[in-house]
Amino acid sequence: MKPWIAGTLCLVLGVSVHVNGQGMDRAGQQCERLSNLAAQVMESRQLGTSKEHVREQLGQEPATRHLIEAAFDQPRYHTRIMQNRARQDFALFSYRRCIQRPGP
Fold first, then answer.
1. Half-sphere exposure of residue 18, counting CA atoms within 13 Å on the CB side?
2. CA distances for 91 relative to 20, 40, 66, 77, angstroms
């Protein structure tokens, strides 16, 4: 995935990590939701769902569009093992980029 896409995604989501525990919890929760969405998008991509169909299902918010574009920039695999790995890697990468985004 292109780094600028993930960075833009986190920026658009407005996730910021604060030093206090409450801020971290909110950021962690938002990043967890992002990770789950990333896994869903990549699962659809790996199963051969069209990009247009995924857009219709998930909406047109800029952050979602960036996530869909990033997923469809990745290769589509044909074995279930590699499809699962792609889904897990994309979700983890999205989470890490989100959680590492510096605060204000």
1. 7
2. 25, 9, 14, 16
